[in-house]
Design a protein that fits this description.
heterodimer, A: 336 residues, Immunoglobulin-like, five-stranded mixed β-sheet, B: 583 residues, mainly alpha, Cytochrome C Oxidase, Chain A, 3 domains, two-stranded antiparallel sheet, 4 strands
Chain lengths: 336, 583
Amino acid sequence: MTALFYILLAIVIGIAIWQIISIFNLKGAIATEKDNNTQGILFAVFGVFFYGLMIFSFWKYSVILLPESASSEGARIDNLYMVTMVLILFVQAITQFLLFYFAFKYRGIKGRKALFYADSHKLEMIWTIVPAVVLAGLVLYGLSVWNDVMDASDAENPLIVEVYAKQFQWEARYAGTDNELGRANVRNIKGINTMGVDMTDKNSLDDIPTRELRLPKGRQVIFKFRSQDVLHSAYMPHFRAQMNCVPGMVTQFSFTPSMTTEEMRANEKTMAKVEGINKIRAEKGEDPYEFDYLLLCNKICGSSHYNMQMKIIVQEEADFNNWLSTQKTIAEVVQE
Amino acid sequence: MSDHHHKETFITKYVFSTDHKMISKQYLVTGIFMGIIGVFMSMLFRLQIAWPDTSFSIIEAFLGRHQDGGVMSPDIYLALVTIHGTIMVFFVLTAGLSGTFSNLLIPLQIGARDMASGFLNMVSYWLFFLSSVVMVISLFVEAGPASAGWTIYPPLSALPQAIPGSGMGMTLWLISMAIFIASSLMGALNYIVTVLNLRTVGMTMTRLPLTIWAFFVTAIIGVVSFPVLLSAALLLIFDRSFGTSFFLSDIFIQGEVLHYQGGSPVLFEHLFWFLGHPEVYIVILPAMGIVSEIMACNSRKPIFGYRAMIGSIIAIAFLSTIVWGHHMFVSGMNPFLGSVFTFTTLLIAIPSAVKAFNWITTLWKGNLQMNTAMLFSIGFVSTFISGGLTGLVLGDSALDINVHDTYFVVAHFHLVMGVSAIYGMFAGVYHWFPKMYGRMMNKVLGYWHFWITVIAAYGVFFPMHFVGLAGLPRRYYANTAFPLFDDVADVNIVITLFAILGGAAQLIFLTNFFISIYKGKKAEQNPWKANTLEWTTPVEHIHGNWPGEIPAVHRWPYDYSKPGHEEDYVSQIMPLKEGEEES
């Protein structure tokens, strides 16, 4: 690809110089029959290049894509995505072919008259109604997934976690034994109480503040997002999850992790991707990389927006509970 | 009026001109100048994305105190993407595209001597010029220009503590945009009034060229939506300078609690996108009109489905005002609203599909004249389809969750509105250059310009979809902080190389454009053998457009290759033959 670029660039510069020198002599302005012929053929060639680029990209770049979803809601999103993508590629392949083929096939010839064909209600009805029907299906399917993903009201015994954003760091707070988060406001931020938890609220006392995000496999997690300064967006690509963190309000998203970190590391696609990454890192003399889930900021938030991240660890529920029980509650932390 | 000649000085003819043809050229040249700045910025930040730790002398030369040893600072990176977006969307593709061609073509194609108010038109241009000057000045302020993204979401854009660009840079950005909106509204009102009132005899609404329909409807969307951005900008100025809390609440930054209470950034997002989404149609509809006109003319065939084309322009315009929420699926607004916006958004695909199929059918059994403008029009349809289809992913709330704000979005909107609209603009320039400057542009340079641009554009934006699907967020200064994205680095290098190629290809256009103004072949009156009225005016510009009476119109503009006529075109001013039916 790089070599192709340099060749193209060299050609361009050469041609540019040659053309600019000769521009004063060239008076051609309107396409002749010869031009129509050349350009028509070029469209056919470009059509081949176009399909080539698409196929090449899919072949070469599929390995960098995200592995399968690590949440059960994400799996539904992935299915919808596949259906949509197949549809898109089908329409793309046909319409682009027709476009380039017609450009080639009907390139102008002197003396030929075009067909005077201004209207066809039948055709227009077809390409109004067919997209309408297909889109209706897509909308219904899409909305059923959306409602399923966004509606956490029927969750049974969900884990409640607050994810807290600030320039340029994430923090987390687990709701503790009562599974209810205590009130919080930035006006309460003081010393070690970095999330502004209201210590006069009795729900607060058992809350557990952490600097890492651990989640149990198979249990629905309801995230409550807050931000203390500017907009951030909590993006967890491997779980197909994202929600903005908005100063002054609490936003929500939920999903059920379906694969532990260990399981994802053993996933075939993940392994292929990690292998590719480690090959690149080895060339640069960097340490090998081990896969981890990530929470990253996906809303422009300032200078270090590009490095605002937190590791996510998904464990079996028992392991998760063990870990959580070793963490100090906020009451203990503040007392110290 | 036609025999009435003002004494024209250099100032009234070239500077404070009230003639729509001169104003259109002023818009075009200003737009091109801003375009050079905008594209050049993209070259700089693409260098940073591809080679984040490498020193470049070009960065050292241009970014002054915002770089260190040839590596740009994170703040100036964000400023560059912000100003690139602002300039390209508003200054190039709104003012440069719509301003140029609405001004040039509305009076000429409807058969009017000038705009309804030449004075307002002049003021509109000079306000645009002023806003461009303010925007350019903002690049040079101490702490750097606005850098909160072109969408300027508060609180980031409201608090200089949050990012240095939100100080003086942001103030100038807001002033510039406020002036820009005033300019845009004056222009739009003028276009609407002119189209409604100044059509020549016989020029009914259903005999208007699709260009005029597109400009007319675009102006209406502008009048409906731009004032909302103005109000958002004003409220943001209040929050920034006078301590109000429209968009801000509960903020703790740099160790202190700010006094703001009760506002919501989500409100700003609603106001911004109430303009922001119609804005993409303000950008693309004029390009669609231009492409429709050029395709029909160069296919030597009527545009297929003229009335459906008008209907779809109106449908798109209407729908464009009720879909803004699809930019906010993950903003924290009620998920039910997300459902509604998914529904309205996917509806837009229907009129868009109708347009795409109609263009393709226009080519079918045509006699295609491969002029440069035609090549760009075909290119437009290609990128519009490629970019439009991924809208089915982004417009679907459930799918948007995972690709929102990733490079997938960047690839999508650059293809569907950026590249497509630029192609429309190029097509328009190549096609109407003889009308603007009385000379022709060089076709060989035009061909090279087209082919390199089209290859480079797909080379940039096709692979970019994969970068987004790998989960890489946009607006990252570097992705070196994430080993997860190490394998994206190679793709980013390919993209940057194609971007440089594409940027370099625009030098061919600039050369062709500026040399042709002085050295191009002298134009004939109707070089493309087109039907529309602008080609019945003399090549030399005269005040009032037509030397004598304005001709009356007897037919629609798309009688190309009509049976019963010797030539393959019939000007709109030709009366119907005996027994001939109007199409």
